[in-house]
Amino acid sequence: MSARRRGAKPKAPLKLVGKKDADQLIEALKLYEAKEYKKSVKILDIILKKDHQNIDALTLKGLNLLSLSEKDEAALYVKNATGKIEGTKASPICCHLLGIYMRTTKDYPASIKWFKAALENGSSNNQIYRDLATLQSQIGDFKAALVSRKKYWESFMGYRANWTSLAIAQDLNGERQQAIGTLSQFEKLAEGKISGAELYEHNECLIYKNDIMFRQAGANPDKLKNVLKHLNDIEANVFDKFALLERKASIYMKMGELKKASIVYRHLIKRNPDNFKYYNLLEVALGVKNNNKLRKAIYEKLQQFYPNCEPPKFIPLTFIQDEAELTRKLKEYVVPQLKRGVPATFSNVKPLYIKRTNAVAPKLQNIVLEYFATLDSTKDPIPYIWTCYYLAQHFLFLKDVQSAQEYINRAIVHTPTLVEFYIMKGRILKHMGLLDEAAATLEEGRQLDFQDRFINCKTVKYFLRANNIEKAVEIASVFTKNDNAPNGIKDLHVVEASWFIVEQAEAYYRLYLENEKKLAELTDADDEEEGKENGSSRNQLEWDSQKYQGLALKRFYAITKFYKQFEDDQLDFHSYCMRKGTPRAYLEMLEWGKTLYARPMYVRAMKGAAKIYFNINSKRKASHSLETSDDTTTHNTKKLKKESGALKKRKEKERQLVAAYPDDEDKDVFGENLINTETPLESFNKNFYSDYCKEVRETEKDYVLDFEYEYANGKLVLCFSALSKYGKIYGTEDAIFGAMAVTLILATKQSAVFDDIAKKVVTRAFETDYPSFPINESSNDGFDWLKYFSDKYGTSNMESLLFLKRMDSLDMGQIITLIQKNLPNYEPYVQKNITQYEL
Fold it and tell me: What phi and psi values does residue 86 have, to the nearest 5 degrees?
């Protein structure tokens, strides 16, 4: 036999000896479909004994083992099977099974490849097209999804879901007319055959068709008339009357028929008189947006029609300019609420405080204080306590914490059994920088009602802000499922309680910073005897520092897992929404998914992780050589070994308390592997930043973080790009822009350790785009860049000063002095955070 023959891979057809083996494979496949995985494996073992090269049997066994949660062994069998396949030349069954395996393991591109291969290799199972379309939609390949949807529709034209899914695919690819035609064609086929159970699905498809027509019409009057005609035709069959009326009003507005639009908006207000949006649109339709006199008359009339509704009373307060009239209206709005004891009175007027602080706040203060003076705490208990509550919130908004504390204490003394007062008092104490006292106050309020989840969560949050993680976890565990666990940490991860996990991560990071300071103080100590005395303390601090940093990063990383799960959860909805006939909800989900990794909670976790990764990177750069770093690590390891017994016991106990996942799922409980990464910037990009960059809008991107990341990578040209984009959004007069620019200019000086070509490119870019900067002074050691920055941008912007401190390009002592000089301008809470964790 030739060498070429010996090295050849098995051919695609099944290598079965006879009909009996073929029947056994089919039986094993049926058992897999019936979820009898162990029985299926037994039959496959018989086949593999006869022919261990059988690709179909290897693949099916891997799929069975995966279903039995034996992931590693399953991966070996599948790897063995794919290694014997030349390209994608395997049997249709094998390719289909590989597609299912890859989909289950969330390798969607590979799954698509094998599903396609199954069809190309002769599979007659047209259901594969549906799975293929679902996966292509999941990865955003809607062009390919359209082809698959059409193929599947051609095979199963008797199901409405297939017509709907085809129309959606056409719509997503910009083929709006074809989508309208598809929906219209099915309407003709189904005319007179819609059952009662199908009416909702039918109504959704009708309004969806109108959505497509409306988007296609643009501003064309003739097309808009057709959209309106279609809307009137389907009105009787549409259940969502609000959407129908809103669409009708929008069409009238686009066509310039404002009077008709105003009639529709009045109808909408009649149906829902508490919707502020309808009132604003009515103003636009009536053309009175810039005429306060007419606006006031309209709202006086509307107030007569809807005397118990908020918008007609509140909206005039946003534009009335006459001092006497505004005072009278404010009194008419606020005092009745206080008389009734409405807890949300301040929340109702807070938008006025934000938009018209100078005009509204003094008037409301006088009004409420005058009313408060008329109250008797005994005769008017309800108005008294809620007026105290209002005044506490009022003075806290104005940053008069002493007055705020005085009024909330009055309320508590009068009625010490209302939880809301303790929450408010805790909030005031937090703004005063008294975090421990704030948490204790919340705990006092929690003791009043152990069944209140809100006060429980609020108390947990305050204890975490006070860095009392142990107490916070204890309280949080009251409402968690603590099976086989000492606390609720695992359950909080299972239920994806992002708020708790991020707060805990930030608390761990603060504790890490505190321990680092203590370690630095020990290192600076010169007394040898004191050093020996503190040897045990040093080892403990070193472990605590490493533990807190690792746990902080571990918790931040848990947030990314949640969002990955959110992304994966969309897979089922690509088919579910078609079956249930909810195309509008499906399109909303797609829009939501486009910015999934730009959501506030994810961004917060990413920024927290960035601090840790950048810190690890800067420490690595500070080490002059790999040997020095290794020596330090060895030295620390020897120190830890001295107390290995005590530390081991302590670590084991702590491991149980901080474990977020079952032992078999997580071998890195303390996040040690995460913080010991050799490539911190690459890890940050892979775990957090790349997903964010793919989805965040250009106008919403955090260019300061982008600048810091690229600066740490030594990519000055990309730093300039971040600077330029920041300047376009916030202006070149912004202090943070100035701080970024000065940092980048200093990076171009001759002694800076950056690429020379990049320096020249950035220098030329500054000369072209921002010639006002003294770029020629970059290498002049005598030029005072901090003075230049202070003169041009001022020193009142704390964020810009903290940025300069982080970048460490200017005199650190002078920057810290400027920060300390500005601290009194901020509330105690902010002062404490900056002093403890930034300086």
Answer: -90, 105
